[in-house]
Amino acid sequence: MNIINPATEEIIKEIEEDTQESLREKLDKLRWAQPSWNRLGLEKRITIIQRFEKLLEDDIERLAGTLTAEVGKPLQQARNEVKGARSRIQWLTDHAEEYLSDEIMTSSHGLTEKISYEPLGVVGNISAWNYPYLVGTNVFIPALLAGNAVLYKPSEYSTLTGQEIERLLIKAGVPADIFSIAIGAKSVGEWMLDLPLDGYFFTGSYKTGKYIYEKVASKMVPCQCELGGKDPLYVADDVVDIKAVAAGTADGAFYNNGQSCCSVERIYVHEKVYDSYLEEFVKEVKSYKMGAPTEAGVYIGPLTRKEQVDIIEEQVNEAIKYGATLHTGGKRVDGKGFYFEPTVLTEVTHEMGVMMDESFGPVIGIMKVKDDAEAIEKMADTEYGLTAAVYTKDESRAESILRKVNSGTGYWNCCDRVSAALPWSGRKHSGFGATLSHAGLRAFTKPKAFHLRS
Ligand code: NAD
Description:
The protein is α/β, with parallel strands linked by helices. Helix content is 43%, strand content 20%.
């Protein structure tokens, strides 16, 4: 397998992919070692994972450099990602005892009832490339804390980062036979589905997630899917600082080149503030520096995957053909690297792919709406259900709107953010199950009910 730098199209490294046999061997070792990792106890596992978190800090420049080289995100955003993973790990290790220890529910008249959170066993984690540290951390950290062994398949676009993660986990003290990575692309993922794993935790596209869910259903083991989104954002007529709202919401749409599962993908603006919002928004987007991701100050680097450039181009061309207005951007950049200009479209409709299908790139459609009711109707018109955001000075207005949109997350005056303390979960085509929070810590366990009469 060739690892390509998306900024230069050069081959960074050639790596040998796993075979069906090597995967089977890895699983056998994981299966054999898992009970001893569980017996080690939660306290010791927490200490080891805390050591891993510290190693991320010590090695941040090297890790960020590797991430930028293989996925193309600007170096500062790569550093931010590693820092973000560290704070998630801190929350998870700080709360592991609270949520993974045995829980006494009732105790009276000689009868104690308690819940014990037992590990699933050996879990498979098939992962995405857009935030390998963050989406990986959401799964393999709580899985390891809970006493599981993990077969982790980084995306084929973030394999070197997967190898760094494995190296540092082992250096921190996770036994080599407790965390293994599966190297390769789709076929390696397919072989993981054939293995008798005790749980499947997937982060990626709706199409692959649906396929995996169907494929593993007959195994009768937990399967959790964190999938894509077409996340809407509404700017109401009472926002005060239009310039700040425009800048914040543009960042929500274009950070990481729009390649975030919770990127803002559609914007609806109340007609009273539409013109001023649009003017500030376009000004902000035009100010973004595009270029080599290693260059200081660059905010828009290349897209990670070549194919995504074609998808974005098709969405933009279709929108323009059917009457959209282009305010800035609109084209791929000639020369080496998978670059596409940050693009703002208005006069878009829900008949266009750009407003209905996940773009996962630097393009945004903005629509004018006459009131909250129209905004709610438009926001709810999607197959997805990951996040939704409302900007208004009125909290109750925001909450009332957000409750009417079927999404796993609601944002008031913020967007494109994830908190370790809150469940991260999708609805409809955005998936099911939760990572992070108490729910995410317990997602990798099976509860055992004890009825104990003395
Ligand atoms: P993808 O579905 O193409 O691939 C994800 C993983 O699945 C990769 O490791 C890939 O090798 C593997 N895979 C592909 N086909 C497979 C198959 N048939 N069987 C088994 N494994 C297979 O997704 P991607 O391009 O890596 O990630 C982008 C998508 O992920 C976007 O839709 C994004 O919104 C979503 N995402 C969601 C979240 C979330 O938390 N909800 C987070 C990050 C990314």
